[in-house]
Design brief:
Length: 115
């Protein structure tokens, strides 16, 4: 009974690791190449390869091995260090929040109706 609970916990942990690597991979795939250079991080291809390998390793191997732990560390480094730097370089924000200005602001400043 205890082993079934442990196996279930390890299965959930494996899914979390795969989701973390998959999220990082998809996020890196949609970022611009020049943002990586501007943030002074490795290039986009490097992060796509590292996160892709992390995803495959977390799927194929047991979570208690060294390779899934290395993949977890790579995913955490991307999400905690690289992703915020890329967001800062590319303008930040996710488009859901407005940072100042009014609803009548245009792309070049406030729109006053021709006054």
């Amino acid at each position: 009974m205890l082993m079934l609970g442990f196996a279930g916990f390890m299965g959930i942990l494996k899914i979390v690791l795969m989701a973390l690597a998959a999220f990082g991979l998809v996020d890196a795939a949609f970022r611009r190449e020049d943002a990586f250079r501007a943030a002074d991080k490795q290039n986009k291809i490097f992060w796509l390869i590292v996160l892709g390998i992390a995803l495959v390793v977390s799927y194929l191997f047991s979570i208690l091995g060294i390779l899934p732990i290395a993949g977890l560390i790579a995913s955490i480094v991307y999400l905690v260090d690289v992703r915020p730097a890329l967001k800062q370089v590319s303008g930040g924000g996710n488009g859901w929040r407005r940072r100042g200005g009014s609803s009548s602001d245009g792309p070049y400043g406030p729109y006053n109706g021709g006054r």
